[in-house]
Amino acid sequence: MIQKGVTMKKRIASILMTLCMVVSLFSGMSAAFADGSAQLIVSTQTAKVGDEVTLSVSTANNPGVAVLTLGINYDEAKLELVGFENSGFTGWTVKTSAVWVGDSDSTYNGEILKLKFKVLDGASGKAEVSLRCGNGDAYNYNEEPISFEIVSGGVIIEQGHTHSYTEKVTAPTCTEEGYTTHICSCGDSYIDCYTDALDHKFGEWKYIKAPTCTEGGSNIRTCERCGATEMGDLSSLGHVIIHHDAKAATCTENGWAAYDTCSRCDYSTYKEIPATGHHHNTVVTEPTCTEKGYTTHTCACGDSYIDDYRDAYGHDLIYIADIDAKCTESGSEPYEYCDRCDYTTWTADKEVPALGHDYINGICSRCGEADPDYKFAPDAPELKITTSSGKPKVYWNEVDGAVKYWLYRSTDGVNFKYYDSTTSTNYTNRSTTIGTTYYYKVKAIDANDARSEFSVVKSILCKPAAPTLSINRSNGKPKLSWKAVSGAKKYWVYRSTDGVNFKYWDSTTKTTYTNKGAASGTKYYYRV
Ligand SMILES: [Zn+2]
Ligand SMILES: [Zn+2]
Ligand SMILES: [Zn+2]
Ligand SMILES: [Zn+2]
Ligand SMILES: [Zn+2]
Ligand SMILES: [Zn+2]
Ligand SMILES: [Zn+2]
């Protein structure tokens, strides 16, 4: 037995003397004292030479401990301490002794530490394992010393024999190495002839969640051999960008800034630019006489509308009274015109042409203006008519300036014809027929060939000339005699007794007549 001490660098206010009693047990797991004193118990195991064996250290009736320093006592000719494992207490430091420091009092009861030993060649019999826990090796949190009773354990070493192994080949799997196990009837065994794991024989990846432009996905594949699955993460795909040019907004249609979309998803940076609406420029059209006024609103885009109608003014009429035409100035019928616009009721036919001068004998009878072209004509002759030897004889006064006179004749008083010319102031028309009425008029002609107006018309019925009567006696009876009258066929004799009241007396074709029935003493008057 070799004992190894452990010294704690720890200040201790007061030290109580505690006796750690060492009890050796060679069979059974542990022994608990009836009085319930605190114990540290080491287990006992059976093993063969070459085996590795694990012994447990347990607490019982633990009053609460914060620091433990345990010396480990064992036969180094039979056992080798090859390792340890934390158990109920964690944080052990194990070298030649085992040290545990908790951060509060632990009252845990049960396995607190595992110690691993290898059974050395040549070992046999029993190999005891015990602990040392002396004064200053166990405290509670208040640094009060605690006394543990140590219950020893150990390894019971079985006698060896010549192993006879049988081989068992374990084939490799996808994930596990293959190997050969050699087993002896005594239970000893070892493994060798390792072969590499096969690795999985995966099938095709299948989506669990397909990746999108913006979100990753995942997929899975399954081993055809073992059914193991492998999951994979798939990163997002990113957008497939399509660029769209900007379009300016118009008055009535929305536009947009340049933007991108994705051909795979509905990603879009589209941002609408609202229609600008019309911006109307206003032009006021004033009313006219006949047209309404209004306001025109026109947008540069061509849109327009009209509103704010105002009534037409109506014409501002001015009445122009009628103007009489004069000789040289035209006149007009009444009309109206508008003082504002060019409206007028005037028409060309409302103009009354200038009348022109109304010259009478070279002087305008209307305005008195002299006719510059007038040739002063002679006055019309003052015509008279008589007979001369039974022939019509016209005569007239001598007209100033006249050099000759023209004579016109008619037999109906309507249709006159030029008949003759004379420089005299009378004219006897010898070429006439008895029983016909002749009409005459005359005009005077001066040296400038200016002609007077016609004279008045004079007419006369052509009759036979009166006989030139002479009277004497024949046998006491009155005897009338006359010269034959040219053209006369017979002669009518009229008689009166008072020279006033004549009565038809007799008719004869001769140029003498003797009144044989005349009474003596009576004075008779005769006409033929
Ligand atoms: Zn064997
Ligand atoms: Zn597999
Ligand atoms: Zn996308
Ligand atoms: Zn517009
Ligand atoms: Zn407007
Ligand atoms: Zn007008
Ligand atoms: Zn005139």
- The CATH topology of the largest domain comes to Immunoglobulin-like
The helix/strand class is: mainly beta
Note the total helix count.
0
- Quickly name the level 1 CATH class of the largest domain: Mainly Beta
* Distinct ligand kinds: zinc ion
Unreliable residue runs: 1-34
The total beta strand count reads 45
Tell me the β content. 35-45%
What is the CA–CA distance across the termini? 237 Å
What best-fitting shape do the alpha-carbon axes yield?
rod-shaped
What do these coordinates show?
The protein is mostly beta strands. Helices cover 0% and strands 45% of the residues. It has six domains: 137 residues, Immunoglobulin-like; 31 residues, no CATH class; 33 residues, no CATH class; 31 residues, no CATH class; 79 residues, Sandwich (Immunoglobulin-like), CATH 2.60.40; 59 residues, Immunoglobulin-like, CATH 2.60.40. The chain contains no helices and 45 strands. The strands form 14 sheets. Strands 3, 5, 7, 8, 10, 11 and 13 form a seven-stranded mixed beta sheet that branches. A six-stranded mixed beta sheet has the order 1-12-2-4-9-6, with no helix packed on it. The N terminus is likely disordered. Bound molecules: zinc ion (7 copies). The site of one zinc ion (ZN) has 3 residues, from strand 24.
List the helices and strands and how they pair.
Layout: E1 22-23, E2 39-42, E3 44-48, E4 52-60, E5 65-74, E6 79-86, E7 93-94, E8 97-106, E9 110-119, E10 125-132, E11 138-139, E12 149-151, E13 153-158, E14 165-170, E15 178-184, E16 189-195, E17 206-209, E18 217-222, E19 229-234, E20 241-244, E21 255-256, E22 259-262, E23 272-273, E24 280-285, E25 293-299, E26 304-310, E27 317-320, E28 331-332, E29 335-338, E30 351-352, E31 359-360, E32 363-364, E33 383-388, E34 391-396, E35 402-410, E36 417-422, E37 426-428, E38 437-446, E39 458-461, E40 469-474, E41 477-482, E42 491-496, E43 503-508, E44 512-514, E45 525-527
Parallel strand pairs: 1-12, 2-12, 3-13
Antiparallel strand pairs: 2-4, 4-9, 5-8, 5-10, 5-11, 6-9, 7-8, 10-13, 14-15, 15-16, 17-18, 18-19, 20-22, 21-23, 24-25, 25-26, 27-29, 28-30, 31-32, 33-34, 34-37, 35-36, 35-38, 38-39, 40-41, 41-44, 42-43, 42-45
The structure holds zinc ion (7 copies).
